[in-house]
Amino acid sequence: MSTPPAPPQAELFDRPFSFYPPIHGVGHNEWRLKEATWSEMVVRNTAEDIEVAIPRRYFGEVSETDKPVMIVGLKQELEYRMGTVWPVRKPVLEMPAPVLAPPPSPPEESSKQELRGIAAVLGISQDRTDTRITRLILSTFLGLAALVLVVWAVIRLTPETRPSFVARDQSYLELTRDDDYYAVVRKLGPPAEDRWRPGSGELQYRALFYPDRGYAVILMGTKREDARYIGAMGLGPDGKGWTPLHSIEYARGANTMGILRSLPRF
């Protein structure tokens, strides 16, 4: 027998090994080196009756360890066919030819017309411009209507924001808590109507109506002749109103506005 060939075959004699990547077409990937020449290496499968010569140019590096098995690298994937090995040639997929776009349709007669006004500036058709302007006007109108509705609801539902009736004159501002019936008459003149509201409690109320002025002067006291000024009630434009217009600071800093608000018309 001739001298053993040079590495890597020297490392493969009497040792089982596996190829990586495995040879296509062979189910069992365990081989032994049978013979080596300067141009090829003959290997035999340990499980199948396959013996094949592989050119040296396909051999790569050998693993440093044989645990669990020695690995012999192949520089190219090989396939076993008709008693020999062949390089695996992967099919090349051809890209489909691009689909040609259909020829552009002839422009419509309307598109040939020259754009005018805002349509020419924006580069859009006249119909689209008219539609956008209509939508803008409609949106603005609806927004204003919603705003008016909100303001009306706030004024209607919030007592503090309701407009108060203002009397035609404000001479009642000259009245003080020390003014009795005669003092009021001296400052405002005789009332058109004088009403007395006796109550079950200690305090009584007297109302001096001045419909021409738009308010009634309210006096309070234990007796009719001792009643003193505590405020004025607005009668409204129709004379049927009953809203506090003026109050005074009463004993110990208390204000009479609470009394006027709870006082029913009489």
List keywords for this structure.
three-stranded mixed beta sheet; 266 residues
What does the model show?
- This protein has 266 residues and is α+β, with helices and mostly antiparallel strands.
- It folds into three domains: 9-87; 114-163; 171-262, no CATH class.
- 21% of the residues lie in helices and 26% in strands.
- The protein contains five helices and 13 strands.
- The strands form four sheets. The chain has a five-stranded antiparallel sheet with strand order 9-10-11-12-13. The chain has a three-stranded mixed sheet with strand order 1-6-5, with no helix packed on it.
- Strand 5 and strand 6 (70-74) form a beta hairpin.
- The longest helix has 32 residues, at 126-157.
- The chain is rod-shaped, with a radius of gyration of 57 Å.
- 16% of the residues are buried.
- Mean pLDDT is 83; it is low at 1-7.
